[in-house]
Amino acid sequence: MAKDMEQVYQARLGRYVTAMRNEKPDMVPIRPFVAEFTAKYAGYTCQEVTHDYEKAFIAARKCAADFDWDAVVSNMVYVWTGLTEAIGTKYYGVPGIGVPADRGFQYLEPAEEKAFMKPEEYDELIADPTGFLFNVWLPRTSKYLSKIGKPVTFKNNLSFLKGGMAMLSYFNAFGKQNELLRKESGTVSAISGIFKAPLDIIADKLRGYLGLLTDLHERPKKVMAACEALMPHLEWVALSAADKNVPIGYWMHRGCVPFVNMEHFNNFYWPTVKPIIESIWSKGYQVLFYAEGNWDAHLQSFAELPDGCIVYHCDKGDIFRIHKEIGHKFCISGGIPNFMLGYGTPDEVRARCKKVIEGVAGDGGYIMDASAIIQNDATVENMRAMTEATRQYGVY
Amino acid sequence: MAEKKEVIRKPGVAFPWEGKLKELGEIKGDAELIKKIWEDVDALAYVYIWHCLLSF
């Protein structure tokens, strides 16, 4: 590795980690979660970067090399549809198949009556979550798998064989990708590991959002028991790929007001997340709360956590309120609206960056990013404006 | 606050070693080696199913 590029990497890593510890680095780090934007910039379609992860890796590295960014996700177009097609996963709209080739992939949530878990199956999930996933859930979510007790098929066997080999291949490729990011552009891999809340998982992948809402009213004890049964597994998975320099990505979906009411957040969502975050922190790992949507109603709950244990990412929330309420405890990121990056002007982007930096980053503990994952509606000019403005206004 | 509960099939385990041991019967060599490798490979199956749920 060129010595100067390693120096760049070390400087960026130090800047990024210092900010995440809620301290003041030499300048505001830039860590944009660029997804389908990378395809647009590198000259690929969404289909190409979603279905061919090598192209996604190339696109991510090209952006990292051309923009002055401190950290990026190695591949924010994370769902490799080559893998999900091999498994036979039913719940994706795949660019180039069910979705136009120039659009990002989509999640397809089944109708409530066709949810992947039936309401009477809570006890089976609670008793043995891993067994339930293998025996009930996966055969329902894959068009190739045979149900337990039914004849085994060629497609069934191939789904497991190809799925397992493909997942291993994909995960192993991230090691090389991170190394290339470091060598080619001195860029830090922004996160490592994945966490989701038990209640979100029940909504997203098991009962569906509407099914979960029904269950919260009709069988609340079952929902709570299911959340508790999922907790040790979700913590294990989060820690299995964690890195002490960068946070575990925690993707926050529909567990906030108004998707659920405050009572449900206080009695179900938060009590089954907080102990996991505390446990992860006790082992020396930070978690990035990627608060998709607006979680401002729950800032005081998040403030219960130990100082420095999370990085809080602001999407639709009020970043100035967030800074006021929890900025003394945690690093904050985000706050540049995706709509502005897509449809605003470079001057508007610069003005917003200046305002956020002046309002939030004064004492350190702020990382520049868009509000949400950056897709192919963001313009190159506006991404440049965000980068340049941060370097202009974000030096301490 | 929710309690962390003991589960039948612990995190990281798909096909528990105890079940495999019953299949094997008498072990004439290093049982610990067989157990370790069984559990290491078994964890890959666990990772597979939980990443199907969480990541894909």
Question: What key phrases describe this protein's structure?
Answer:
heterodimer; A: 396 residues; alpha/beta; TIM Barrel; 6-stranded parallel sheet; two-stranded parallel ribbon; 18 helices; 53% helix; 8% strand; B: 56 residues; mainly alpha; 2 helices; 57% helix
Low-confidence stretches of chain A: none
Largest interface: A-B, 41 and 26 residues
Which fold name is given in CATH as the topology of chain A? TIM Barrel
CATH architecture of chain A: Alpha-Beta Barrel
Structural class of chain B: mainly alpha
Structural class of chain A: alpha/beta
**H and E string of chain A:** HHHHEHEEHHHEEHHHEHHEHEHEHHEH
How many independent structural domains of chain A? 1
Question: What percentage of amino acids of chain B are in beta strands?
Answer: under 5%
Q: Which whole number gives the mean pLDDT of chain B?
A: 90
Q: What is the CATH top level name of chain A?
A: Alpha Beta
Q: Strand count, sense and closure of the main sheet of chain B? A: none
Helix content of chain B: 55-70%
Shape of chain B: elongated
- SS field, number of helical segments of chain B: 2
Sequence of strands across the biggest β-sheet of chain A: 5-6-7-8-9-10
Q: List how many beta strands of chain A DSSP finds.
A: 10
Through-space gap between termini of chain B: 29 Å
Provide a short characterization of the protein structure.
The complex is a heterodimer of chains A (396) and B (56). By secondary structure, chain A is α/β, with parallel strands linked by helices. Chain A has 18 helices and 10 strands.
Descriptive overview:
- The complex is a heterodimer of chains A (396) and B (56).
- Chain A has 396 residues and is an alpha/beta fold.
- Chain A has helices at 3-20, 36-42, 46-51, 53-66, 81-87, 122-127, 129-141, 154-185, 198-206, 208-218, 220-240, 262-269, 274-282, 299-302, 319-326, 338-343, 346-360, 380-393, and strands at residues 71-72, 92-93, 106-107, 188-189, 194-195, 248-252, 287-291, 310-314, 331-334, 366-367.
- Chain A has a single domain, classed as TIM Barrel (Alpha-Beta Barrel), CATH 3.20.20.
- Chain A contains 18 helices and ten strands.
- The longest helix of chain A has 32 residues, at 154-185.
- The model of chain A has no long low-confidence stretch (mean pLDDT 97).
- With 56 residues, chain B is mainly alpha-helical.
- Chain B is built from two helices and no strands.
- The chains are: A alpha/beta (396), B mainly alpha (56).
- The A-B interface holds A 78-80, 83-84, 87, 89, 127-131, 133-134, 137-138, 141, 163-164, 167-168, 194, 196, 201, 205, 224, 227-229, 231-237, 240, 271-272, 274-275 and B 1-5, 7-14, 44-56.
